[in-house]
Write a structure and sequence with these properties.
By secondary structure, this protein is α/β, with parallel strands linked by helices. The chain has 15 helices and 17 strands. It has helices at residues 38-56, 72-81, 85-102, 118-130, 159-165, 206-216, 230-245, 276-282, 287-299, 311-331, 341-360, 365-385, 389-406, 443-458, 462-474; strands at 3-6, 11-14, 22-31, 60-68, 134-137, 140-143, 180-185, 200-202, 220-226, 250-256, 259-261, 264-265, 307-308, 426-427, 435-436, 478-481, 487-490. The structure holds one RNA strand.
Length: 491
Amino acid sequence: MLSIYNTLTGKKEPYHSLQPKTVRMYVCGVTVYDYCHLGHARSALVFDMIRRYLEYSGYTVKFVKNFTDVDDKIIKRANEQGVSCEEITFKYTQAYYEDMAKLGILPASKEPKATEHMEDIKTLIDKLVKKDIAYQVDGDVYFQVERYPAYGRLSKRRLNDMQAGARVEVDERKRHPMDFALWKSSKPGEPSWESPWGAGRPGWHIECSAMSMRHLGETFDIHGGGMDLIFPHHENEIAQSCGATGKEFARYWIHNGFVQINQEKMSKSLGNFFTIREIFEKSPWPQEETGEMLRYFLLGTHYRSPLDFSDQSLQEAKNALDGFYDLFQRLSETEQRTTCDGELVSTVDRARMAYSQPLDDDFNTPMALAVIQNLRGNVNRLLEQGLSTESRQRARAAFREFGNVLGLFQLVKWQFYQVTLKGFEEVPVRGVEQARVKEVLSETDVEIKLTERNEARKQKNFKKADEIRQFLASHGIVIEDKPDGTSRWKR
RNA sequence: GGCGCCGUACCCAAGUGGUUAAGGGAGCAGUCUGCAAAACUGCGAUGCAGCGGUUCGACCCCGCUCGGCGCCUCCA
């Protein structure tokens, strides 16, 4: 039985879909005016995991994630660079897809754009104006918060409290300082669409209401996003949507915590952010592995907690992951003994049950990882006592199955033979000492040396064997001798 | 000023009103190994920021204090 922490009620609640076996879920995506940073990655990854787990649990998931492609920031960026808004949004939408692919984040089932939903947006605003919940001032349309009595129920704020704290200049034309724009008249040169209120563009919040209702219906199951969207974005979405339809909007509100650097929120204004591509570029490890390291790191903390990013944390994730892939290598080797084949089956079954328990409890991925870590230990033990080739494949398949929910353990090659490092002079690793790789040895080079060494070992020439080991080690090659006299190696 | 979050071993990080406070990383010791690596085994918080309170019993509930952070303005 899945339960989810619902921001709306402030409690963990049993989850029930409105339609049986189907989840309709909307997540606020990004405004495409710049490269994504790690914070965006976390949010995307958290909801990707939730989506995957829901599917793993047998639900069909209608997952909608939007792109905001009309916005002040886009206009500003376009003006700065002297290019059109379309060029900006196209460029960063492409970049988004590239970054997400590297992180192993699956595309949503629908990825709508605000600019493609102008009719829906205008219809929705019109409805609010007709119901007298929104009002027009010159070419702008505002939502009147006092006309929605439940305003503040998501963020647990009262209108009066907020009024006291408001320290921005209030537009005198607004009836209440918290009233927000549904439609903004456009200045010359800005993107604009015709409307009953004049040429203009939609406010930020209305697009999500329009797009979610278009693709998921007026009432749907889950709405998610980063913590910082609770107010005002999601609060306003609720007001607009419920105001327009008179029905409940989203039923479960899920919000992920921030990525921090040294205990502080990662943000543009603080200048302490890392873009996703920057992390990949600076990583001394190949792309697939860096992606997996990031996922392991990001899912190692519960989605609602803040999490601090550092190079050390990434390295720790890699070390933890290495243990798995070392095991997977051994599982790929053949074996006749069947001593523990029976026990393996029950071990995997037990793990399967233990696995979904924490994930059912508000998506507790750290605990789920602990279950998989336990399974790793158990399989290692059984492996030592004897697991047949078939059982080894079964074990590997189990890791694939569990790992798929978290986007882990899907690689066929990690290290052991196939890996090539990128960049070979000096690879700076922030915070840690410099990783240095002197020169590249090709796989053939390594194989030749290895054969040479095993010859030497056969002849008990351990001095020579150790020299070769040392030589290879100085080139970042680690040798593992197997009981049968042959060796495996990894970089 | 309003609303809210966090403080668990060297580091990361789960968790429960009452059996031994998960798991990982790092470290140490041992087994194995020609050596090594990997793997396995063992060690590691008598305590969960501090102080009070509720309770038969609290790390977990309540209050206060200290420390750190977030939202209230665009923000994942």
